[in-house]
Design brief:
single chain, 4% strand, 5 helices, 142 residues, mainly alpha
Length: 142
């Protein structure tokens, strides 16, 4: 039985894999993906997985999975437009957890503002200052 499984696995995995071309320009998705993020994930990671897979370097299954997943990721992106709204399963998720797309956008803006505020206002009541003794037995405050 194991021989049959091995044979099927060998037949189902391609000898070479390529990364599909991007269907967008960097500027079209810039509010969502930065040029640096695209460069890292597309030019370095995705192409690196494919290159290592094709050259039979490293863990072949890992490199195949990395290339495959990146080939699934990038076609999902499209030019950002104000009319982009979730649909299908994503719309169901948004409606279930936020009530509506508009409520989700408002809640996201409020959460981001709160996080920025908290980052600037270090709350010592949550993280109290601990006292340490210096080498002479005297207490010293951080």
């Amino acid at each position: 039985m194991r021989e049959i499984i091995t044979l099927l696995e060998e037949k189902s995995i391609p000898s070479d894999i390529e990364i599909i071309p991007l269907n967008f320009e960097d500027s079209q998705v810039s509010p969502v993906l930065s040029k640096a993020t695209i460069d890292l994930h597309y030019n370095k990671l995705a192409k690196g997985y494919a290159q290592r897979y094709n050259d039979k370097e490293g863990d072949r299954d890992f490199n195949y999975a990395g290339a495959f997943l990146h080939n699934m990721l990038f076609p999902q992106f499209r030019e950002v437009r104000n009319s982009n709204k979730p649909n299908g399963p994503m719309k169901g998720f948004v409606d279930k957890h936020f009530g509506s797309y508009e409520d989700m956008k408002l809640r996201t803006k409020l959460t981001n503002a709160l996080l920025k505020y908290r980052a600037y206002r270090y709350d010592y009541s949550v993280f109290p200052v601990k006292e340490k003794k210096n080498g002479k037995g005297k207490k010293k405050t951080n």
